Amino acid sequence: MRVVYRGLAVAVAVVAVAVTLVVAVLPSGPDEVAAGPVTAPPAAPSSSGPAPSPEAGEPVQAAKASPTPGASLPPGYTAMEALYADPRVPKLTPKVKKIEPRPPARRVLKDRRTGLAVPRLGLPWKAHNPAPFTTKQVLPRQRGTSLRGILVSCPLPIMEQKSPRDTALLAARWTLNHHPQGSRITWLAAQPVKRGWMLIYRVKYGKHSSRAAVVVMDGGMRKPGLAFVTVPDTQRKHWSDVGRMAAGVRVLG
Asked: Which residue stretches does the UniProt record annotate as biased composition, category Low complexity (predicted)?
């Protein structure tokens, strides 16, 4: 009998080891899967009916939903999609007028990093410590406000797009970082320029506004150059300098 009991004990031990191995190999539950890349949420089905089912054996791909203005964007959206979803920046339509031709600036600041020559505006504008830009001109500070006119140039601080127009639009959106919180853009003038694009616009914030312009231009460097000017309405007598800057940027030659 001892031999029989000993044999039964060995058999039970072997079965227990086998069960343990099976449990260790199999996943602990049907919902546990390997983590994969995060994708944009699928688009909602159209009102005409449910989305068609994929054929057997075909991979299922998540469709990218159209951005909603003002909504936060999940990973995977392009810079232009983010622009179109930004309620602060309206669509640029063909109705936006062009800037009037102006004579070239007589005095310029040479920005060697961008390969651009930026108009050197007369008094009361004066050169200023450019950091973090490469050139900078400013109007005098006024009592009771921290806002004043500035004109700067630097290598393009955003990702260049295939179209100079799109690059300029993104650059204008970027300049809202240098305006009061809650600022919104209204387009005033837009047109292509030699080796780039130019935009003039109004930036509205509360009861006040600024007039601003960006010029994106290829100066032959690794990145295009950006010239940006903004003048608040408390210094509106210098708003004409905005157009003078926009029309006067050129490639160093």
From this structure: 45-60
Query: Token match 């640029």: residue?
Result: 92
β-strand pairing of 196-205 with 208-217:
antiparallel
Q: Which residues contact 39 (CB under 8 A, 6 or more apart)?
A: 62, 76
DSSP summary character for residue 237: G
Side-chain-facing half-sphere of 212: CA atoms under 13 Å: 29
What are the structural domains, with CATH classification, of the chain? 108-251 (3.40.1000.10)
Sheet holding 135-138, edge to edge: 126-127, 135-138, 150-155, 225-232, 208-217, 196-205, 184-193
* H-helix or E-strand spanning residue 131: none
Pairing of strands 108-111, 196-205: unpaired
**Tens digit of pLDDT at every position of the chain (253 positions):** 444 444 444 444 444 444 443 333 333 333 222 223 322 333 333 333 334 333 444 444 444 555 554 445 556 789 999 999 999 999 998 878 887 766 667 899 999 999 999 999 999 999 999 999 999 999 999 988 889 999 999 999 999 999 999 999 999 999 999 999 999 999 999 999 999 999 999 999 999 999 999 999 999 999 999 999 999 999 999 999 999 999 999 999 7
Whether 233 contacts 208, CB under 8 Å: yes
Which residue do the tokens 């343990």 mark? Answer: 20
The residue whose two tokens read 């080796």 is: 195
What amino acid occupies position 197? W
Token couple for 61: 């791909």
3-state secondary structure at position 19: helix
